[in-house]
From TrEMBL:
Domain AFP-like: 151-207
SUPFAM superfamilies, sorted: AFP III-like domain, Aldolase
MF annotations from Gene Ontology: N-acylneuraminate-9-phosphate synthase activity
Matching PROSITE patterns: AFP_LIKE
Lineage: Bacteria, Pseudomonadati, Campylobacterota, Epsilonproteobacteria, Campylobacterales
Gene Ontology terms: biological process: carbohydrate biosynthetic process
Pfam families per the UniProt record, alphabetical: NeuB, SAF
Protein name according to UniProt: Pse synthetase
Amino acid sequence: MRLIAKEKKPTIVSTGIATEEELFKICEIFKEEKNPDLIFLKCTSAYPTAIEDMNLKGIVSLKEKFNVEVGLSDHSFGFLAPVMAVALGARVIEKHFMLDKNIESEDSKFSLDFDEFKAMVGAIRQAESALGDGKLDLDEKALKNRVFARSLYASKDIKKGEMFSEENVKSVRPSFGLHPKFYQELLGKKASKDIEFGDALKQGDFQ
């Protein structure tokens, strides 16, 4: 392993049946040899691997515990696991590939052919796109859709001096009026002017 680390090239290590102690030792060697390009692939050594045995959260644990790039060495049927792995932070996917699945071999049952592999890559790209950037700010599309949020409207004609009540104020779409958070504050206050049925309520409409 030290000879490999000395090459200063990106190195992929499948965890397989390795212990934490052994993985820590590998990390130590790569640090000593000043090679930062180490990638651990979460691997379950069962062929094929049942979905319930994959422990994909181990991908997150590898990333947090060893501070390296992570991926998945997958021996399960289909490509659900690789897509989920990407959502959990995997940067590398190893998946068995066969040109002709009619050829019997030890791994033919859980290998992908050309069309299946293409579909897997497409699903992974969709997953990457769906993950977004993690920011909680509203994007441009969401801001445009704010018009469909609820706000406070007069559900009946309201005369100047009349009190706002559950009978004459409703929270409906679109969002051109007061935010619904002002509903309780508004109840019991008097209208500062005549308000027609269907009008969006504004800050200056009550006193």
